[in-house]
Amino acid sequence: xxxxxxxxxxxxxxxxxxxxxxxxxxxxxxxxxxxxxxxxxxxxxxxxxxxxxxxxxxxxxxxxxxxxxxxxxxxxxxxxxxxxxxxxxxxxxxxxxxxxxxxxxxxxxxxxxxxxxxxxxxxxxxxxxxxxxxxxxxxxxxxxxxxxxxxxxxxxxxxxxxxxxxxxxxxxxxxxxxxxxxxxxxxxxxxxxxxxxxxxxxxxxxxxxxxxxxxxxxxxxxxxxxxxxxxxxxxxxxxxxxxxxxxxxxxxxxxxxxxxxxxxxxxxxxxxxxxxxxxxxxxxxxxxxxxxxxxxxxxxxxxxxxxxxxxxxxxxxxxxxxxxxxxxxxxxxxxxxxxxxxxxxxxxxxxxxxxxxxxxxxxxxxxxxxxxxxxxxxxxxxxxxxxxxxxxxxxxxxxxxxxxxxxxxxxxxxxxxxxxxxxxxxxxxxxx
Length: 432
Known about the structure:
The chain has helices at residues 4-14, 24-30, 47-59, 71-79, 81-86, 104-114, 127-137, 152-155, 161-168, 185-195, 199-203, 207-226, 232-244, 252-259, 263-275, 304-310, 316-320, 325-344, 388-397, 425-430; strands at residues 36-40, 63-67, 91-95, 120-124, 142-146, 279-282, 298-301, 351-354, 360-367, 370-376, 404-408, 414-417, 420-424. It has 432 residues and is of the alpha/beta class. The protein folds into 2 domains: 4-146, P-loop containing nucleotide triphosphate hydrolases (Rossmann fold, 3-Layer(aba) Sandwich), CATH 3.40.50; 152-430, no CATH class. Strands 8-9-10-11-13-12 form a 6-stranded mixed sheet, with helices on both faces. A 5-stranded parallel sheet has the order 2-3-4-1-5, with helices on both faces. A two-stranded antiparallel sheet has the order 6-7. Strand 9 and strand 10 form a beta hairpin. Helix 6 (104-114) crosses helix 7 (127-137) and helix 12 (207-226) crosses helix 16 (304-310). It starts with a helix and ends with a helix. Mean pLDDT is 91; it is low at 1-15.
């Protein structure tokens, strides 16, 4: 058993300072409604620090902590599960539960015994296997939240719910017309993209050394734990290719040819990256229309800092002059929005829309029967051609899509047409 003070010390060594996370209030609310709260996400995103902080804050000395990251703790549970829970009768924070997938039936029993009282904080990564255990044993008993690396708004001490509300209800932008939210490449965009969001890289300014250590740990330990990949060198090259193609519909045949693997291996390795939260799949949006649309998913690298690092893009000049900067910028903004959703505790159902002729809305948000198309442009003075895809989407889906949004470098909230608003990137990065 690891006591809370010990875990708090361990967490502090891993990340010197604790930065309050936007999702904290949502977690507090869920402890009054569910017997267990599970926080998932990539390694080093801050799950342990978050839940150790809330465990101490909400329950103090009444709580106990067990970290399943050592063989001794795993053996203590598996040698006698009933005795394990007898020795931990109160509030319990179980860290890294993906290492003990056989624990979920016992958690179901304990949650049922507790009735309506909160009993467990759980943390874990490796999404698919973890969620399989949850859906099979804890459906309806556990609340599940994603914790991604830090959003830029969190680093600035902002909550994220207000930005989500504006994106989902663009008509509310009318109240902000004329207000400016400035963001510049050299002061805001480039530093945020290069740093990424992992707390050690952002808060301790650990930079390239930490990112390289994370890359090696991920490839050498996590990938082997998830699946026996025989050629880690090829998998590492695959990781680099995915980072360079972030924000695009990946041509699997091309990637297979470059790496020297078959298409089934490409699918398997993409699944590994998604399982471990290194990439997200953005599905294509299509409804019952007669228009031909691209239906393959778009893949987005989850952390811009790690993605740029593996491509050896480590300074402002290299980044701004990269031939694929547009896709990298789009991916960065998409992930910032994804983090805003996750850390506000709002369900995420984002997709993208593209026609075979090349018209594309980078993000489509479904909201209570409506659709909000969003286009992302690295442009300080949006031109009419930047609105072509939004107009096409709004025309195609009619009343279902009353408004569209352009996110750009233009600093002012404006109406660009009767149905399209400009949202400055500064509003996404800095909040209201």
